[in-house]
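Now for today's protein:

——
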Amino acid sequence: LEQISMADLLQVFSMNRRTGVLQLQGAGASAEVFVNEGRIEEATCGPTRAEKALYRIIGMSEGRFSFVPGRQSPVRSLDAT
């Protein structure tokens, strides 16, 4: 995350209409952002979910991420680009 901001990373997934889960590890926290066709459908950051978790994730500036294509969220609490 030191090389690309979370906002930029999520924008890339949106523009390319990706489906899957973005997994993050950093600063003692783990997080996930589920995207479907480029739209954010769910976010978790530790025990926090939905919009509050997404704001925490966007604020992350250190850590590592990976993307698992095709995986969808069992719950949909967001509908955002």
In short: Helices lie at 6-15, 50-58. The radius of gyration is 11 Å. Residues 45 and 72 are 17 Å apart (CA to CA).
